[in-house]
Amino acid sequence: RLTSLSLQPAIAPELVRGRVHLKCSYSHPLSKPQLQYVVLWSRLSGPSQREQIHRETTLESFSCVEMDGTNLRLGDTVFCTVTAFTRDTPEQQSLPEDSKGFYAGIKFLPESLQIAEDGKEHVLTVLSTVPIACPGQDDSCKVTLQLSTEDLGKNSQLPGPPDVALSACQVDLRPALCSESGCAAATVTVTAVADFAQDGNRVSHVRAEPVGRGDLLWRAHTPRDVKVTVRDLPTGNCYSFTDPHIITFDGWRYDNYKVGTFLLCQSVSRVFEVHVRQWDCGGHRSATACNCGVAAH
Questions:
Q1: What angle do CA 276, 281, 286 make, to 5 degrees?
Q2: Residue 164 near residue 206, CB atoms below 8 Å
Q3: Which of 105, 203, 205, 282 could cross-link to 74 by cystine, CB 3.0-4.6 Å?
Q4: Residues 182 and 131 sit within 8 Å (Cβ to Cβ)
Q5: pTM reported for the whole predicted model
Q6: How far is C-alpha 64 from the chain's CA centre?
């Protein structure tokens, strides 16, 4: 009598004659050589809901389905469920065993980011979990992704500067050997834009869209966005005004009546300085200088 056989089904991607397939492999108990298998392929169609896409009975210890862009599409989370039985007693079946869900498509790692307006770069990996298939074997075999950002902050309906900046507008995914981590990858850096405004924490989305591919499989694929939460940091202020009075970042006050060019402030963490130029504006009766120019670099 068959009970639990520990078949341990698992899904992996592969190329078959230049076309993307998913392969469900499972253990074949050596003590039961006459087993047959019923393999049920399904995909998530909603929260905790599955839709059957293929079913077959086989003697092999694996089953394959093609990602044709119609019945099985990029962006699907796919499962295979395997049940075993003997030829003599097909009515007596083992308990069905599920594979882990396999997400077939392009995704970002990490799937969300929390960053601050501190100028630090954060690495975002764009990953394809399925092979990059091309008709030829030339050097131009790739999937190009157009990257964009959208601000979903408090005033997202009003025009304004973006809240995050990307190091590149496009990335290319090129063919590579598939591993547990994926089949192709590219990286881009994300940096929060310092807007010098006390506007609270804001949310942006980073999205990728395949371009330049003629085949249905990639053309119809829209990868999941990355949610980027930008943490607002207090903005420092310093002042130089009238004849001129100086107020530093930490609130100290003093006067500078001299004529010439002076270093007003300098960053200790990056290459940034502000210079001011002062000229004599007090006449013969008083030694007074006024700001006449400023340069930031």
A1: 120
A2: yes
A3: 105
A4: no
A5: 0.75
A6: 29
Residue 156 banded pLDDT, cuts 50, 70, 90: very low
Number of CB atoms found within 10 A of residue 222's CB: 13
Domain 106-231: CATH superfamily is: Immunoglobulins (2.60.40.10)
How far apart CA 39 and CA 24 sit, in angstroms, is 9
Q: Output the pLDDT for position 295.
A: 93
The reply to whether domains 10-104 and 106-231 share a CATH topology is yes
| Domain boundaries of the chain, sorted by first residue | 10-104, 106-231, 239-296
Alpha-carbon distance of 274 to 142, in angstroms, equals 45
pLDDT in tens, 94-145: 899 999 999 999 999 999 999 888 888 999 999 999 999 876 555 578 889 9
Using CA atoms of 133, 134, 136, 137 in order, give the dihedral in degrees to the nearest 10.
Answer: -60
User: Selecting from 3.40.50.300, 2.60.120.260, 3.40.50.2300, 2.60.40.10, what CATH number does the domain 10-104 have?
Assistant: 2.60.40.10
pLDDT value, residue 272: 86
What tokens appear for 32 in the block? Answer: 């039961």
Q: CB–CB of 278/290 below 8 Å?
A: yes
Confidence of residue 82 (pLDDT cuts 50, 70, 90): very high
Quick: pLDDT tens for 49-63: 999 999 999 999 999
pLDDT class of 197 with cuts at 50, 70, 90: low
Average pLDDT over all residues of the chain = 86
| Contact predicate 9/80, CB 8 Å | yes
